[in-house]
Write a structure and sequence with these properties.
Helices cover 46% and strands 14% of the residues. By secondary structure, it is α/β, with parallel strands linked by helices. The protein has a 7-stranded parallel beta sheet with strand order 3-2-1-4-5-6-7, with helices on both faces. Helix 3 links the parallel strand 2 and strand 3. It starts with a helix and ends in a 10-residue tail after the last strand. The mean pLDDT is 95.
């Protein structure tokens, strides 16, 4: 009989988390480390991810920081090479790095906007999974979590390009789950709602927006980073062992709320 602790235990596992210098990524790295995983902390902000790794080590965790711009294929190659040199394998991959991109209608987005948003939010994760998943499969399995968004589940007037990239991430999770499931690799996506992170600071500070959003959210509050991190840990662990190809919505009920 498996205990609850055993279901969520990540001892002996090696996790790679992108976009881990702050916000959701930092909370995910901290939570995976707390569950026993060795964590490779990656971010375009080298000083930021170094600070996170140092804090994890100070708490007794095994951690390494590797700066990386996920829009650069060359840097992704170096990230995987250094991660494997450090730990010998990657059991858990969390593709969290992303940007909001331009705010406004889609026809106002420039070619450069399209290129940058898709390179960071979609092409980077796709390239990273293609470099990591085969090794997982060769060792008999692993878990990948892609950070999507509820912006990828419904129409958007202001952040349509972001929403398109996040919808594509959810589809990437489904495709990879079908391709690699027979070899023991699970791939899922998480679609957070409004969460208290630096990315959402502007929205949270907008009283008119918050009044509308909370009225449409049954739990009447924003989410906290550790609430998303806990879901990542579940999907990464044996507790999520029979879940793959799924996009798990974590939004306090926003997408099912009726505004009353």
């Amino acid at each position: 009989m498996t205990t609850d602790a055993g279901l969520f235990d990540l001892s002996g596992q090696v996790a790679l988390v992108t976009g881990a210098a702050r916000g959701l990524g930092r909370a995910i790295a901290e939570t995976l480390a707390a569950q026993g995983a060795a964590v490779i902390v990656s971010d375009i902000d080298g000083a930021g991810c170094a600070a996170v790794a140092e804090a994890l080590v100070a708490r007794g965790a095994c951690a390494l920081d590797i700066a990386c711009d996920v829009a650069s294929i060359e840097q992704l190659d170096r990230l995987v090479e250094r991660a494997l040199a450090f730990a010998g394998r990657i059991d858990l991959l969390v593709c969290n790095a992303g940007i909001e991109g331009p705010v406004g209608p889609l026809d106002a987005a420039t070619d450069a906007d399209w290129q940058r948003v898709m390179d960071i939010n979609l092409r980077g994760p796709a390239a990273l999974t293609s470099r990591v998943i085969p090794g997982m499969a060769a060792r008999g399995g692993g878990s990948v979590v892609l950070m999507s968004s509820i912006a990828g589940l419904r129409g958007n007037r202001a952040i349509g390009l972001y929403g398109l990239s996040k919808a594509a991430l959810a589809q990437l999770a489904r495709n990879l789950a079908v391709e690699w499931g027979p070899r023991g690799v699970r791939v899922n996506a998480i679609a957070p709602g409004l969460v208290r992170t630096p990315l959402a600071a502007g929205l949270i500070a907008d009283e008119a927006f918050m009044a509308r959003r909370l009225a449409a959210t049954p739990l009447r509050r924003v989410g906290e980073p550790d609430e998303i991190a806990g879901v990542v840990a579940m999907l990464a662990s044996r507790a999520g062992g029979f879940i793959t190809g799924h996009t798990l919505v974590v939004d306090g009920g926003t997408t099912i709320g009726d505004g009353s």
